[in-house]
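User: Sequence in, structure out. Go.
Assistant: Echoing your sequence, followed by the structure tokens.
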Amino acid sequence: MSDGSKLLDEMNDRSREVFRRVVEGYLATGDPVGSRTLTRTMTEKVSAATIRNVMQDLEYMGLLGSPHVSAGRVPTHTGLRMFVDGLLEVRDLDAMDREKIDATLGGSDPDIPAVLNRVGSALSGTTQVASLVLAPKHEAPVKHIEFVQLGPERALVVLVFADGHVENRVFVPAAGQTPSSMREAANFLNALAEGRTLSELRGVISAEIRKRRRELGTLAQAMVEQGLAVWQDEGETYERLIVRGRSNLLAGTEADELERIKTLFDDLERKRDIAEFLEAADEGEGVRIFIGSENKLFSLSGSSLVVSPYMNADRKIVGAVGVIGPTRLNYGRIVPIVDYTAQLVGKLIAGRGK
């Protein structure tokens, strides 16, 4: 049993109802909830003074806070966590929300990145916050690798996969590379690549370089290692992460929240960090909710992330979809939207074999 569940169990009915109504009121309006407001909605008739005493107890427990001098209270991140875990009522997916998400996957468009772009736009449009879509890694076996000199300081690495997919990446080669050293590097890689996926190939390259160091020229070795760095670091996670709907985060933002939103925007620009976080969050199925400081990447902006992984035909997690916004999210509505979108994307990926 979590600490939050234990706290909930120890509360009496009145304290639990006051806590629930404060959180629900805050999530609905964004405003602190006062004792006089609660006297009109409580199941039992109690005085404002009694409710204020309960609120003070909940504040002492670290579940509520007072943002201003006003008598109203808002939930702390700890309180929100407890509410989400123990009191949140997740609604059924709204038919209109379902239609908006379904519409993104219509047609026979073979371009999965284009489909995922539409999914991200629909997700941000439906939830009115920013959406994050982590596209699947390309895991088909590598068929051919080639390096092409584009100029004195520019080269191209071409990856051809067994399923016909082609990736081109431009990079700055180490000084002194020649067409001959590039051919040598490509021949070395192609001899290892047959039948291996890119991630499998990465695993054997370093060991093979150590074993065959004398056979491989210094320039060719540098090219192989640089090609490996390009695949691992330059752009793969960056290109795989699609962020949509940043402008939604500004809607209705109060002046004192602008700095928090600016911090979140800065975080969203560090796409690679977010992609790595989403991959780390892919442990287990289902929707996960990270609130405020629970999410180290976005802790400074005090934001919430609602995310769910999706799987391929082999039931292997290959990506994730989610939304990010202020902690005052309509969790009960957003959780089923994210869950449904993840399942739909998983079916799409499984149906196309990748």
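User: And one key feature?
Assistant: Strands lie at 64-65, 74-75, 130-134, 142-151, 154-161, 166-171, 241-244, 288-291, 303-311, 317-326.
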